[in-house]
Amino acid sequence: MYPNKFENLILKFQNLPGVGRKTAERYAFETLNWEQQKKEEFVNALQVLIDGVDTCKVCGNLSDGDICSICSDQNRDHTLLCVVQSPKDILAIESIQEYKGVYHVLNGVINTSKGILPEDINIDSLVDRINKDEINEVILALDPTVEGETTSLYIEKLIGKDVLVTRLAYGIPMGGHLDYTDSLTLLKAFQGRK
Amino acid sequence: MYPNKFENLILKFQNLPGVGRKTAERYAFETLNWEQQKKEEFVNALQVLIDGVDTCKVCGNLSDGDICSICSDQNRDHTLLCVVQSPKDILAIESIQEYKGVYHVLNGVINTSKGILPEDINIDSLVDRINKDEINEVILALDPTVEGETTSLYIEKLIGKDVLVTRLAYGIPMGGHLDYTDSLTLLKAFQGRK
């Protein structure tokens, strides 16, 4: 019904996560009505998808060059290593301004049902780093899901007992209500009481 | 925190309607993880924004050429003219497969608070069309909002009494419940009873 190119634009917007037909149409009509300059800036910004984003050769974080700003910061504690699933998590942890160590980005978690095996994520480079660098503590900060737990256990076994391995505390989120807390979280909160 | 180009991508996604920081980050990470071909198809599809989409010289609908497929269809009733706000509405009306006339797209409605005056939307070309072509009936199918009503009244006055001007029926939507219907809709339903 719509002209082919416009229909194609709608279909491509539908590829975005959580975007259905109606939202895609809304995006297409909205962007089409933007001023020319705004359109060009939008399309130019997307060019980064094709050019690709550099990742840090040390930790796997998104980076402007070979080494990311965190890994090249000598004021940080390079003996403290926090393992995360995605660069997004680094931003969340940095926002609390408490952690002063470095990171290692796995870029995923082990998920056998989706065919993601240990060799598909950055576990080898993690083990390399632990063997080569002087690491005192590895903090496993993966999502508390079945896949995250599996991956944490896998890494713990791999690293062995030379390094202290810790996990983030589970419990009731701040500002939460006891009666709205799911039973698994409540169980973890009881087990982790101090 | 993120590399500049990636941060820029997130900011540009935030320009889409109803997209905040979190959703924009989700879009950015998701698109970055797409396969190269999918990325290229996405970026290429957006090129239409810069190239622009043709609009029909007769009705203002989005079109692949100078005249849209509806205006060039000789099997349709060209004496019956339906006035809509946006090309989206044409798709909705076409989907009921009942209307066999042609359309006129205003590309907006009069909205003095946003500075949209009658001369900013395609009202002049509508009056031209009514004067030149043989039109028996003009159906005003604008959104039932204050701005839509204002625009409908404005057009009715402009056209004068030479042509039959009708509006879509207001009332309770099919599958709706009386007790959930707002009072204005209920009032219209009573006034329009037959």
TrEMBL record, chains A, B:
Which Gene3D superfamilies does UniProt cross-reference here? 3.30.60.80, 3.40.1360.10, 6.10.250.240, RecR Domain 1
Q: Which GO terms describe its molecular function?
A: DNA binding; zinc ion binding
Choose any GO biological process term that the UniProt entry carries and state it. DNA recombination
Record keywords, A-Z: DNA damage, DNA recombination, DNA repair, Metal-binding, Zinc, Zinc-finger
Renumbered zinc finger spans (C4-type): 56-71
Extract the SMART domains matched here: TOPRIM
Q: Which domain of life is it from?
A: Bacteria
> PROSITE patterns in the record, alphabetically?
RECR, TOPRIM
Domain Toprim: where?
79-173
**Similarity remark:** Belongs to the RecR family.
Q: So what does this one do?
A: May play a role in DNA repair. It seems to be involved in an RecBC-independent recombinational process of DNA repair. It may act with RecF and RecO.
Tell me which PANTHER family the record gives: RECOMBINATION PROTEIN RECR (PTHR30446:SF0)
This one is known as Recombination protein RecR
